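User: Show me a protein chain along with its predicted structure.
Assistant: Here is one chain, sequence first, then structure tokens.
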Amino acid sequence: MTIGGRVWKYGDNVDTDAIIAARYLNTSSEAELAAHAMQDLDPSFAGQVKPGDILVAGKNFGCGSSREHAPLALKACGVACIVAESYARIFYRNAINIGLPILECPEAARATLAGQTLEVELASGRIRNLDTGETYHAVAYPPFMLDLIAAGGLVPYTRAQLQQQAAR
């Protein structure tokens, strides 16, 4: 699975309140969450992000509360992948659970600039900056995680696995 898109760049310690403010947590509407993604940190983000774009961040991305709404808001507005120096562990798990691929690669996160284009190959962990030609390496996803991401997350993946077992 290869993802390619324009980069949105943010710094260290972007917390879940910055990703989706608490005042919007009374909805489970993906469209509503997407409309307010990153609103307090970058008011232009939700209106300008395009499907397939890639978010790049510094250390400890997704820190703060354990709200599942944060990765969901990013995925719903079109973010196809996140590359960061590091993640808060609960954000990492929540992102994988909803099928949003995220990679830890400090070198790529530090070197990439907003507006550049990245190509991310999940199966190999290769991250290529199409503007500079630089290539970076993150830990590749194992096959079952690629299947989980391709299915759209843990719930659809599990549902499909159960249906396959029932069909046998």
